[in-house]
């Protein structure tokens, strides 16, 4: 048994034993659970993939004379201005003004909110254009200027949903190619795509949210951020394997951090042909090894994690809940899965390569004493279910 | 008989050379086997051609000397499709769209996506599907 305080003391003195969720599996096999639980202080988990529910609050400071922005665009990407005068919210999936979207199908979607966020973090100069109706206290009606992230008072990433615990494998049973947020899916089950770091993924290493909670400190593209709430669509009450691993989406995290401290190589705009734009983000979550149970959960292997294969040409859009079959991440990583008797080539949208880098970077920061852990102030709910949107007639 | 070798080349044709039957002479005069991957050479415009040439070394050398007598520039790396290493995140989305395995994962531990230009047939299937815009065509 260890406490957060004891672990943080060891981190501070540079003596913490830290392993990645990848390394811990063989380590526990070799040392045994009890001995390893005494020795190891932290296991690092990570993920790098598209996270559509991402965005940021920006504060521009006041111009002379002042403006109360009522509509604004950064690099022609619309931002939300229904808050204070020079605060805006920039969302990852917002398209650039004039983007033809899917008018010429499949649309290219070359630039949008996610790319603006990438450009901001990379320190590039961006154009702000804003309009206002003008008031006595904010007389300016229009402004066009150029800025970098350093010119802003605050750039705070606030992501309502990141780190999906598990996710669908997208496949296409129809006779035409389809263009989805799970990538391009060729007809007649020619390919399938998954999107998870599997055994390295944060919430798969803490399936019942025993240690990750509101207040947990996380690594967000190099910045030290934290979990500020359960993520949107968080639904822990779902079907699980005998080992407790959700067999579908399940838990999510709402995350925030100071964008000025992020590293550009882990913040990347995403383009999905025929679908839209998004943001790919690198996130690392440290798991404090408080006891043997916590350690045991971090030893989860790709072969024990099952993902549902879902037909994105019919069952997903129709929201009928149908799952074709379940496959393990070990099978997915082999590059081939069997779907109803047909061998299907498998691709991925989540970068395991980057996730591994992140898990190692976070482990190094903790070993150096640069990243202390934070004890959660509230747990994530375990019993929530996902509700659908019901289309109702106007009440009479 | 000297051994035959194969070289992948990318040729750039400026506007003034677009109407000349240069490749014909590679076959006829220098005994080369040509295998064109991709070409866009139209009259009154500049153009590109990516091809393999197979033949004995001396013939290839002389053929290239012949090509150089025109205003055609030769790129010996033959890269018509390039990958920006800084943009690639190694997500692996391209892998199932690549028909020849030029884009593939060899190391199952790191899951790095490698791009083997020698195996690329320039079908360009990867370019539109890359979520990070890491793959591009020279023309």
Explain the layout of strands and helices.
The complex is a heterodimer of chains A (396) and B (139).
Chain A: H1 4-12, E1 18-20, H2 23-31, H3 33-39, E2 42-50, E3 55-59, E4 71-74, E5 77-79, E6 87-91, H4 113-121, E7 126-131, E8 142-147, E9 154-162, E10 169-171, E11 178-180, E12 183-185, E13 191-194, E14 213-214, E15 217-220, E16 223-230, E17 253-258, E18 267-272, E19 276-288, H5 292-298, E20 306-311, H6 315-318, E21 325-328, H7 329-333, E22 336-339, E23 342-348, H8 352-368, E24 378-379
Parallel strand pairs in A: 1-2, 10-20, 13-23
Antiparallel strand pairs in A: 2-19, 3-6, 3-9, 4-5, 4-7, 7-8, 9-17, 10-13, 11-12, 14-24, 15-16, 15-19, 16-17, 18-19, 20-21, 22-23
Helix pairs in contact in A: 2-3
Chain B: E1 4-13, H1 22-28, E2 33-40, E3 47-56, H2 57-68, E4 73-75, E5 81-83, E6 103-105, E7 113-115, H3 125-129, E8 135-137
Antiparallel strand pairs in B: 1-3, 1-4, 2-3, 5-8, 6-7
Helix-strand pattern of chain B: EHEEHEEEEHE
Form type of chain A = globular
Structural category of chain B is alpha+beta
User: How much helical structure, as a percent, in the residues of chain A?
Assistant: 10-25%
How large is the count of helical segments of chain A?
A: 8
- Under CATH at level 1, the class of the largest domain in chain B stands as Alpha Beta
Strand order of the largest sheet of chain B: 2-3-1-4
- Strand count of chain B: 8
């Amino acid at each position: 048994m260890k406490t957060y305080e004891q672990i943080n003391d060891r981190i501070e003195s540079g003596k913490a034993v830290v392993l990645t969720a990848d390394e811990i599996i063989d380590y526990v096999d070799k040392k045994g659970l009890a001995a390893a639980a005494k020795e190891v202080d932290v296991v690092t988990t990570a993920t790098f993939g598209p996270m559509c529910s991402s965005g940021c609050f920006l504060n521009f400071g006041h111009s002379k004379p002042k403006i109360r922005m009522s509509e604004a665009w950064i690099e022609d990407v619309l931002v939300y201005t229904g808050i204070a005068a020079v605060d805006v919210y920039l969302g990852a999936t917002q398209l650039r003004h004039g983007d033809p979207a899917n008018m010429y199908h499949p649309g290219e979607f070359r630039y949008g909110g996610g790319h603006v966020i990438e450009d901001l973090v990379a320190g590039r100069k961006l154009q702000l254009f804003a309009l206002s109706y003008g008031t006595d206290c904010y007389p300016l009606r229009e402004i066009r200027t150029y800025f970098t992230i350093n010119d802003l008072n605050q750039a705070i990433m606030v992501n309502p949903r990141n780190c999906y615990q598990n996710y669908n494998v997208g496949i296409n049973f129809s006779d035409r190619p389809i263009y989805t947020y799970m990538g391009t899916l060729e007809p007649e089950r020619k390919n399938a795509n998954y999107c998870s770091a599997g055994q390295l993924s944060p919430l798969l290493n803490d399936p019942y949210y025993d240690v990750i909670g509101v207040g947990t400190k996380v690594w967000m593209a190099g910045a030290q951020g934290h979990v500020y709430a359960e993520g949107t669509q968080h639904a822990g009450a779902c079907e699980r394997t005998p080992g407790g691993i959700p067999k579908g989406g399940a838990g999510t995290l709402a995350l925030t951090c100071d964008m000025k401290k992020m590293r550009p190589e882990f913040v990347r705009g995403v383009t999905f042909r025929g679908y839209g734009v998004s943001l790919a983000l690198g996130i690392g979550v440290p798991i404090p090894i408080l006891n043997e149970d916590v350690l045991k959960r971090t030893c989860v292997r790709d072969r024990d994690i099952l993902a549902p294969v879902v037909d994105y040409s019919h069952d997903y859009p129709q929201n009928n809940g149908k799952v074709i079959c379940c496959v393990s991440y070990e099978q997915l990583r082999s590059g081939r899965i069997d779907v109803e008797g047909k061998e299907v080539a498998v691709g991925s949208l989540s970068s395991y390569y980057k996730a591994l880098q992140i898990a190692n970077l976070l482990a190094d920061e903790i070993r150096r004493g640069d990243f202390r852990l934070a004890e959660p102030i509230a747990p994530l709910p375990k019993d929530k279910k996902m509700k659908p949107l019901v289309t109702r007639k106007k009440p009479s | 008989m000297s051994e035959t070798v194969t070289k992948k080349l990318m040729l750039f044709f400026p506007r003034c050379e677009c109407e000349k039957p240069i490749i014909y002479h590679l076959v006829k005069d220098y005994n080369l086997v040509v295998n064109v991957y991709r070409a866009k050479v139209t009259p009154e415009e500049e153009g590109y051609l990516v091809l393999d040439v197979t033949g004995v070394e001396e013939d290839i050398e002389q053929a290239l000397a012949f090509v150089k007598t025109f205003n055609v520039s030769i790129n010996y790396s033959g890269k018509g499709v390039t990958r920006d290493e800084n943009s690639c995140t190694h997500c692996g989305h391209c892998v199932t769209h690549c028909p020849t395995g030029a884009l593939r994962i060899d190391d199952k531990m790191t899951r790095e996506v490698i791009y083997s230009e020698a195996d690329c047939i320039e079908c360009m299937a990867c370019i539109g599907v890359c979520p990070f815009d890491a793959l591009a065509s020279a023309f």
